[in-house]
Amino acid sequence: MGQGIENDSPSVQKNTVFNTIRTISSIIYPLITFPYISRVLGAENVGKVNFSSSFVSYFSLITTLGITSYAIRECSLVKDDKKELEKTSSQIYSINICMAVVAYVVLILCTLFVPKLSGYKTLILIQSLGIILTVIGTDWLNTAMEDFRYITIRTAVFQILALICMFAFVRSREHYKAYAVTAIIASSGAYIANVFYRKKYCHVRFTTHMDWKRHTGPIVTMVTMILAQHILNNLDITMIGVIKDDTAVGLYTTAAYLINFVTQLANAIIFVIMPQMTKAFDNNDNEQLNSLYRYTVSFMLAVALPCFAGLLVMPEEILTLIGGAEYLPSAGVVRILSFSMLFMLVGSFFGNIILIPAKREKQFMRACMSGMVINAITNCILIPPLGIHGAAITTVAANIVIMVISMIGKPAEIRLSNVGKIITGPILGTIFVFIICIAFKVLIENVIIRLLIAIVVSGIAYLVTLIAVKDEFAQSTIIPVFRKVLKIGK
Fold first, then answer.
1. Distance of CA 170 to the CA centre of its chain
2. Are residues 54 and 128 in contact, defined by beta-carbon separation less than 8 angstroms?
3. Is residue 292 exposed (0-12), middle (13-18) or buried (19+ Cβ within 10 Å)?
């Protein structure tokens, strides 16, 4: 990897590891809890909790729209000046409080006057606590300060606490409200700790002294961008439900879940790199910019390519493991969406890692809105004749559009030299993953055993390949982590 990262910012590697661990724990947590909850509460009460959670999520979205990325960028620029950091943080916090007040007013009115919601008042009250906890937690400040060790440990502690509470207090079907409380502890409880922890950086408080000219334009742009992304992510499911049926929705959402697992993992680096990219753009430090650029590309390739191979070759095995044979009709969707995943990650890279830190968020907004429009139009054309496979194809088209428009907006100072050193290891390793997965698909009859052995063997082969060819990400992060683990083991 480039010298800029290795010498000047050793925390990048550690932060990448910490944030990857946090992302994995957040993905695994529901996989641990759902089997227990679905059995204890039953489908009806799980449905109640999920319905109220879905309802509250719209108001949570209103509250946080565009704030996180904007706050990370702006606080990263002033984090070395405590007075300016306090001023900027307090202004963004105050805007967020105002957005939360609006969200709560609308939420309360809906809960009181929409008949359908009358039976969910207590659940909605419990789950709406996540809105205010997220706002007062100001977790974006910890990200801007690159304190990923704290974020990861804090998240794990509260997830463990939530698990203990769940097993202790959720024991029968009537305990669905207690489960809602444990879900809030897991997702938002950690933000309570932030109220006290953030004082080590600055005192964040509500203020009426606002620099509206500075904040309004970028926040409106990012709100529009996030809304377009949200609509794009949910439009397929909505239109499948309208044009087809609930079974088609279930098949498509299961396939999309697998893809989202990988994209979340590959995108774990975004908030790690964003503060340093923002600072490097502000300082016109082209050497640091390109070192960060190389590191991000090497991480995303190292994570995404082998997963792409596995999803392409073994979707039937994965679907059988997580959902059973009834989900096998969505195997083709998984294969199509695995290509969409690659385009989406490239678009996300250029948008979140380059355009937003470079204050070119309007270009990323145009890209997201264009992708949303393409997705809507092609859904109307392809879903009626092709069903869920048509929806998957439209997602590929939308993400290609987002990727291309985002790439067009790339600043000229961003250059990727000596590409071979970055791509050789992941591509060669991915070829081995393909071969191993195909071989086990032919040689082993039992589906679950086939999948588990393929994961272990191909995973080892992939890591050995990266290390053997001296891949940059392996040299800078994977090998040091192995050494640390082995040292602890001794």
1. 28
2. no
3. buried
Task: Provide CB contacts within 8 A for 483, sequence distance 6+.
Answer: none
**pLDDT at 347 > cutoff 60:** yes
Please tell me the predicted confidence (pLDDT) of residue 490. 54
User: Which DSSP string do the residues of 105-171 spell out, in sequence order?
Assistant: HHHHHHHHH-GGGGGGHHHHHHHHHHHHHHHHH-HHHHHHTT-HHHHHHHHHHHHHHHHHHHHHH--
Q: Would the CA dihedral through 89, 85, 16, 485 be positive or negative?
A: negative
Average pLDDT over residues 53-71: 84
pLDDT for residue 395: 96
- Band of pLDDT at residue 355, cut at 50, 70 and 90: very high
Cα 86 from chain centroid?
28
The CA distance from 198 to 76, in Å, is 15
Task: Give pLDDT tens digits for 72-113.
Answer: 999 999 999 999 999 999 999 999 999 999 999 999 999 999
Measuring CA to CA, how many Å separate 219 from each of 23, 65, 225, 371?
26, 8, 10, 20
Res. 323 pLDDT band, cuts 50 70 90: confident
Q: Indicate the domain borders of the chain.
A: 1-210
Name the residue type at position 32. Answer: I
The whole-angstrom separation of Cα 369 and Cα 443 is 46
Closest CA to 402 of 232, 272, 239: 232
Please name the residue that has the structure tokens 């907004």. 365
pLDDT value for 6: 44
Could you tell me if 92 and 212 are in contact, meaning their C-beta atoms sit under 8 angstroms apart?
no
Amino acid at 119: G
Residue with tokens 């009626």: 384
What dihedral angle (degrees, nearest 10) is formed by the CA atoms of 444, 445, 449, 454? Answer: 40
Residue 383 phi, psi (nearest 5): -65, -45
Count the neighbouring beta carbons within 10 Å of the beta carbon of residue 441.
16
Burial zone of 259 (CB within 10 Å; 0-12 exposed, 13-18 middle, 19+ buried):
buried
Predicted confidence (pLDDT) per residue in 228-244, tens digit = 888 888 888 888 888 88
The C-alpha atoms of residue 12 and residue 28 are separated, in whole angstroms, by 24
The CA distance from 187 to 22, in Å, is: 12
CA distance from start to end of the chain: 29
Gap between the Cα atoms of 465 and 74, Å rounded: 40
CB 96 within 8 A of CB 67: yes
